[in-house]
Structure formats: C-alpha cells, structure tokens
Design brief:
This protein is of the alpha/beta class. It has a single domain, classed as Trna Endonuclease, Chain: A, domain 1 (3-Layer(aba) Sandwich), CATH 3.40.1350. Helices cover 20% and strands 33% of the residues. The protein has 2 helices and 5 strands; from the N terminus they run βββαβαβ. Strands 1-2-3-4-5 form a 5-stranded mixed β-sheet, with helices on one face.
C-alpha cells in the first residue's frame, strides 16, 4: 500500500514540540523519508495540516530534505476531497484502506 523497499526508521517519534508522528520510513529508491499518519476515520483538513507539520519538523529537527507524506485512512470527507487530493503538489498523498467486495460472477454447476 505504501510502496516497495521501504524501511522503518522510527515509529511513534515525538518531536521537541510534543507532537508525535505514527511512522517514519525510508525509501532507498528515491532517497527520501516518508512520514506516515494513520487515521481510523475519514479525514479532512486537520489531517493535512497535521502531516505537513510533521514534514516541517522532519526537515527542521531531523535534518531531512527529501520528505514525502502519506495519510492512510478509510476515506476523505467529501467537502475536503479536492483539497486533500491536490496536496500531492506538496508531496502529500492519501492512501485508503477498507473492505471491498468484488463479485466476479458465479460458477454454474452441472
């Protein structure tokens, strides 16, 4: 879901301002760190603000220059959908999870 060849750098890392990111991964293929924020419910602007905050702190406090953000959630609140999807220009992406039922027809007995 997040990509191939990623390694875990930190989990539940607490910055000096007291904020805490969920996961910090490293992608050797692109030589960038990936800030991952995992949400249980549908997200809006707060999740985008939060992950951008973590990305800023990764640059300022941890010294990383190439940073990508990924919000993992079951979906985006409809009012904020275009805003969150447009955030890819700031290197922030949304990945959704959940159950999906796929019926590909049936078999007939004979």
């Amino acid at each position: 879901m997040l990509g191939e060849g990623l390694t875990l750098k930190e989990k539940q890392y607490t910055f000096t301002d007291g904020s805490r990111l969920d996961l910090l991964l490293y992608d050797a293929g692109t030589d960038q760190v990936i800030v991952v924020e995992i949400k249980k419910g549908h997200v809006g602007r707060e999740a985008l603000t939060q992950i951008k905050h973590y990305m800023k702190w990764c640059k300022q406090e941890l010294g990383y220059s190439k940073i990508k953000g990924i919000i993992v959630c079951p979906g985006i609140l409809p009012y904020f959908e275009s805003e969150l999807l447009a955030a890819k220009t700031d290197n922030v992406f949304v990945r959704t999870y959940g159950w999906r039922l796929d019926i590909n027809g049936g078999t007939t007995g004979g």
